[in-house]
């Protein structure tokens, strides 16, 4: 009802706060007069007594301060958004480190995924954090449902290893019987969306797939011994590979490991020479190579690594507690009540490893556990072609750890290291729009590399030499 009076009082306040200079006596007398009239005659309208033109020449000065504050706030928000989304980072092909050999020349010629630009989705795809979170929450988009058969393998210590076997649904490019033996990431199994997507794609390219279910990771499946999977234990993976070799005597193997699984498969191949029999090649994606060197970086706040550490520790804590009765309920258990109390208080993976995981295998210290369970101790024994893949914006793998695969590729002729600029941890979503494609750069690169190696092994020496000219 008294709109103009309210506007007048508001403008007087703005004038005092932001306008600067001397107050306008005429403006303040007009507003005070109207206010007094309203108090004396509350039902009387004073709108007709107010001339808004009185305030016209004051508006620019009054709002100058507000404009500056608003512009500054918008600038700060845009700066943070652009930095967090990494929008200024250009797309580029992966950085490739390898020796100049006939095999490396052949691979770079036969694998365009390794030489062309990796293009992440618009707006959010250049953020390693968003790629990582989407992988963690969604896994993949439009996830298929491959149908497999679950296998159960009794272990010597009473544990029961399980893996899922998926037969090929297409013919392999070489016509040979090839099996991919796959080790998922931390606490993962064959039912994860990213595993299902990769298996379906590999099946359609003629690969039989065997996917390890980490010990204790499958929902609604109890442990049969007081032990779970750990960072570098290769027992279950070795049992799966042995079963595949026995069940399919003619098959050749392509070994694939994701994240923690990358550490396990590289360690497995390097532990014994016999582990590399009938293995054509190995691909490791987004692993950290050395837990001993990684533990300090996981306590740092840059790239929110400490926060990721806390979240992963919480998930592992839930998984361990879901098997509390199996881990504590036997006399052979290496876990006691004091360890359980330490588990409740743990806020990092290192604390969990120290309180629980190292004791499954009798390590006396966390340092000893990390030293002996990291693949960097064994990878120099691997002689089959080995592709190591990482992303430069992976928030879980510190930049300093990437010196390990880069150095290995410079020294060992069988190793190639591919480093993408974007992709996060196990994301690698791609697409030229806002929405990602169902298949990721990672899925296509692994199958393309495996196809190239299979064809390389299929051809004779003379054909190989011709192919690399």
Automatic annotation (TrEMBL):
It catalyses: a triacylglycerol + H2O = a diacylglycerol + a fatty acid + H(+); 2-(5Z,8Z,11Z,14Z-eicosatetraenoyl)-glycerol + H2O = glycerol + (5Z,8Z,11Z,14Z)-eicosatetraenoate + H(+); an acetyl ester + H2O = an aliphatic alcohol + acetate + H(+); a butanoate ester + H2O = an aliphatic alcohol + butanoate + H(+). It is a single-pass type II membrane protein. Progesterone-dependent acylglycerol lipase that catalyzes hydrolysis of endocannabinoid arachidonoylglycerol (AG) from cell membrane. Acts as a progesterone receptor: progesterone-binding activates the acylglycerol lipase activity, mediating degradation of 1-arachidonoylglycerol (1AG) and 2-arachidonoylglycerol (2AG) to glycerol and arachidonic acid (AA). Also displays an ester hydrolase activity against acetyl ester, butanoate ester and hexadecanoate ester. Coiled coil: none annotated. Belongs to the AB hydrolase superfamily. AB hydrolase 4 family. GO terms for cellular component: sperm flagellum; sperm plasma membrane. It is found in: Cell membrane. The gene is abhd2b. GO terms for biological process: acylglycerol catabolic process; medium-chain fatty acid biosynthetic process; medium-chain fatty acid catabolic process; sperm capacitation; steroid hormone receptor signaling pathway. Residues 179-432 form the AB hydrolase-1 domain. The chain crosses the membrane at residues 68-87. Its EC number is 3.1.1.23, 3.1.1.6, 3.1.1.79. This is Monoacylglycerol lipase ABHD2. Pfam families: Abhydrolase_1. InterPro entries: AB_hydrolase_1, AB_hydrolase_4_sf, AB_hydrolase_fold, ABHD4. Its main location: membrane. Keywords: Cell membrane, Glycoprotein, Hydrolase, Lipid degradation, Lipid metabolism, Membrane, Serine esterase, Signal-anchor, Transmembrane, Transmembrane helix. GO terms for molecular function: acetylesterase activity; monoacylglycerol lipase activity. The active site is at 259 (charge relay system), 394 (charge relay system), 425 (charge relay system).
């Amino acid at each position: 009802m008294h709109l103009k009076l309210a506007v007048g009082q508001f403008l007087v306040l703005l004038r005092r706060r932001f306008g600067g200079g001397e107050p306008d006596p005429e403006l303040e007398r007009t507003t005070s007069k109207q206010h007094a009239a309203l108090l004396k005659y509350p039902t009387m309208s004073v709108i007709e007594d107010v001339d808004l033109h009185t305030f016209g020449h004051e508006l620019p000065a009054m709002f100058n301060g507000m404009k500056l504050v608003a512009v500054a706030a918008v600038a700060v928000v845009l700066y943070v958004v652009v930095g967090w989304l990494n929008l200024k980072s250009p797309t580029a092909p992966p950085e490739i480190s390898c020796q100049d050999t006939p095999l490396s020349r052949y691979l770079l010629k036969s694998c365009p995924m390794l030489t062309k630009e990796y293009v992440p989705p618009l707006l959010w795809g250049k953020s390693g954090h968003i790629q990582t979170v989407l992988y963690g929450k969604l896994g993949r988009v439009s996830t298929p449902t491959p149908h497999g058969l679950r296998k159960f393998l009794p272990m010597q210590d009473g544990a029961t290893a399980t893996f899922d076997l998926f037969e090929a649904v297409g013919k392999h490019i070489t016509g040979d019987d090839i099996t991919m033996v796959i080790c998922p990431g931390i606490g993962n199994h064959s039912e994860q969306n990213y595993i299902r997507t990769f298996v379906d794609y590999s099946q359609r390219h003629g690969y039989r797939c065997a996917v390890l279910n980490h010990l204790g990771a499958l929902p609604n499946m109890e442990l049969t011994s007081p032990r779970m999977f750990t960072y570098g234990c290769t027992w279950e993976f070795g049992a799966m590979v042995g079963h595949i070799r026995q069940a399919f005597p003619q098959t050749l193997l392509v070994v694939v490991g994701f994240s923690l699984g990358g550490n396990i498969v590289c360690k497995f191949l390097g532990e014994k020479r016999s582990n590399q029999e009938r293995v054509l090649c190995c691909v490791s994606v987004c692993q950290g190579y050395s837990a001993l060197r990684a533990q300090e970086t996981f306590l740092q706040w840059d790239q929110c690594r400490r926060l990721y550490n806390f979240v992963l520790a919480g998930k592992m804590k839930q998984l361990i507690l879901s098997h509390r009765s199996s881990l504590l309920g036997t006399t052979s258990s290496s876990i006691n009540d004091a360890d359980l109390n330490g588990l409740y208080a743990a806020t990092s993976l290192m604390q969990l490893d120290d309180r629980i995981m190292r004791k499954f295998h009798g390590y006396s210290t966390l340092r000893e556990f990390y030293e002996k369970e990291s693949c960097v101790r064994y990878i120099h024994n691997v002689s089959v072609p080995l592709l190591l893949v990482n992303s430069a914006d992976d928030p879980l793998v510190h930049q300093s750890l990437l010196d390990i695969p880069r150095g290995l590729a410079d020294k060992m002729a069988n190793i190639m290291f591919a480093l993408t600029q974007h992709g996060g941890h196990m994301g690698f979503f791609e697409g030229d729009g806002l929405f990602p494609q169902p298949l990721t750069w990672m899925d296509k690169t692994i199958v393309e590399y495996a196809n190239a190696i299979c064809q390389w092994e299929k051809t004779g020496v003379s054909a190989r030499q011709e192919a690399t000219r």
